[in-house]
Specification:
The protein contains six helices and eleven strands. Strands 1, 2, 3, 4, 5, 6, 7, 8, 9, 10 and 11 form an eleven-stranded mixed beta sheet that branches. It is globular, with a radius of gyration of 20 Å. It comes from Croceitalea marina.
Length: 269
């Protein structure tokens, strides 16, 4: 069931931008019948990003128009690891090959920052969108043309200059609580799926009327459901307080009296 939820979550997450922005073209994920997808096992101990690689591979392989030629191509220089390429794929209709870098991110929108692309950061302030962009453009994409990769590409009968380079960059964005008007242009507003709030603001009477489920990290991807153990505001506060001391921002599923559910990050900073 977990694998199926991850596949649903990934497929239904919007791309962070449409077509080309920042000099990078967004990969258009093909349409598949996701309801009929038979999810295959995914190793449990992987981080979310690596689990999403398994999901990407499963779902793209289900499309009749695409073929995966290679994945996780390691690029080494002597004993130094320069990096790796996520996927080399073949479009059967176009008869063209692509180098695809995959990213699946969770960003809060910080309206206190002026520049839109700098507003996006991980809930623990460690993962910044603009640094990921810089890495894609100046490290990941140039790896395709490194001499250290030449023999592997030659085995695949691929010429690097003939590959189109794109990114499959999906993201869930979280706006400040009760303030969804922050501009994120030219990014895709459909990526906004929830809110974030500081701990002191969460620790107020306004939130006592709701029940909460504190998610595991792999559940960040999936659509909230009622089949979890929801707890009171008081019980939730006790657990969140421990997370705050560790500077760890949890994602909650906030359940309202009408059984509607919202995603909410509570941040420590």
């Amino acid at each position: 069931m977990v694998e199926k939820e991850l596949c649903f979550g990934f497929y239904n997450t919007s791309p962070l931008w449409i077509k080309e922005q920042f000099g990078i073209t967004q990969f258009e994920f093909p349409d598949i019948t996701i309801n009929k997808h038979l999810a295959r096992p995914i190793p449990e101990r992987l981080r979310i990003g690596h689990k999403m690689e398994y999901v990407f591979e499963q779902l793209l392989s289900e499309s009749k128009g695409w073929q995966i030629l290679a994945k996780n191509l390691l690029v080494d220089r002597n004993k130094e690891r320069l990096g790796e390429l996520d996927f080399i794929v073949h479009n059967k209709v176009e008869q063209k090959n692509y180098h695809i870098e995959l990213a699946y991110k969770f960003y809060i929108i910080n309206p206190e920052i002026t520049e839109p692309i700098h507003r996006l950061m991980g809930p623990n302030k460690k993962d910044m969108f603009f640094t990921k962009l810089d890495k894609l453009k100046n490290k990941q994409f140039p790896l395709l043309f490194s001499k250290e990769l030449a023999s592997q590409l030659n085995e695949l009968r691929l010429i690097p200059e003939e590959l189109k380079q794109e990114v499959c960059f999906k993201a869930q964005l979280f706006a400040p609580y009760e303030n969804n008007t922050t501009s994120i242009r030219p990014l895709n507003k459909d990526c906004i799926v929830g809110n974030w709030i500081r701990f002191d603001d969460f620790n107020t009477t306004a939130f006592k009327q709701y029940e909460y489920y504190i998610t595991y990290k792999q559940e960040w991807v999936v659509k909230p459901t009622l089949d979890r153990r929801y707890t009171s505001h008081y019980e939730t506060l006790l657990e969140i307080n421990l997370r705050m001391l560790k500077q760890n921002a949890p994602m909650l599923w906030l359940k309202k009296p009408d059984d509607s559910i919202e995603k909410l990050f509570v941040v420590w900073w």
